[in-house]
Write a structure and sequence with these properties.
CATH architecture: Alpha-Beta Complex
Order of helices and strands: EHEHEHHEEHHEEEHH
Number of domains: 1
Helix content: 25-40%
Number of helices: 8
Strand content: 15-25%
Structural class: alpha+beta
Largest sheet: 8 strands, mixed
CATH class: Alpha Beta
Length: 221
């Protein structure tokens, strides 16, 4: 059994579609570190959740990155959506010649044990070696050595395995009544996420892609 630390039961349903064993929901308010990349935030949360439960856990962090805005809002997506709203973010992007963006998600897994070498990066507290292991994450999603050492115990930190999922798309004027967050301004294959039903969105979602990578690896754990 894997414990998914989240307040959203929809994420449990989505995770269960990829994993061959039960996924349990845990509503645990772990401290969310402020960092410039999703990987650091997710890794810190997974460590805190494992220390709380003593059981294998997964934590996810996700966000919208807009190329013309230098990857903004990224890990600050929830805060920006709450304070600025999707209309203002669209207005910031509207005047740009290129409006490409991506939804990104990082699944962080921690069970208190070490990990054999695999293509997926391992966050061990921010050493230079860890950053090399993170080379398959986007440049703005790699773990930050300074931040990790400050908030997670540096070289003594519990290792965390990271799995990234990315959905590339375009930033458009808001359309659709479904979804949440920035879904109405993110278009993929001709539809915004807000115009897709739940099953359609889950089939292409960034979290689903990260979960698929995790499930494939976890089956060999």
């Amino acid at each position: 059994m894997v414990t998914f630390v989240t307040t959203n039961p929809g994420k449990i349903h989505e995770a269960q579609e990829y994993l061959d064993e039960p996924v349990e929901q845990l509503d645990f308010d772990y401290p969310e570190v402020q960092a410039d990349n999703l990987a650091t935030v997710a890794a810190h949360g997974a460590r805190a959740a494992y220390e709380h439960t003593g059981e294998p856990v997964i934590v996810d962090d996700s966000g919208l990155t807009i190329e013309a805005l230098g990857g903004f809002p990224g890990p600050y997506s929830s805060y920006v959506e709450d304070k600025l709203g999707i209309e203002r973010v669209w207005k910031l992007t509207e005047a740009e010649e290129k409006r490409s963006g991506a939804f990104r998600a990082v699944i962080a897994y921690c069970d208190g044990e070490g990990f054999a070498a695999t293509p997926e990066p391992v966050d061990r507290g921010g050493s230079e070696d860890d950053q090399r292991r993170g080379q398959d994450l986007a440049a703005d999603e790699r773990p930050s050595a300074t931040t990790d050492e400050q908030v997670a115990g540096g070289e003594d930190a519990i290792p965390v395995k990271l799995f990234e999922g990315v959905v590339p798309g375009e930033i458009v004027a808001p359309r659709g009544d479904g979804g949440f967050g920035f879904d109405p301004i993110f278009e993929y294959d001709g539809k915004t996420f807000a115009e897709m039903d739940t099953d359609e969105k889950n089939a292409v979602s960034h979290r689903g892609r990260a979960l698929a990578k995790f499930a494939e690896w976890y089956a060999t754990r």
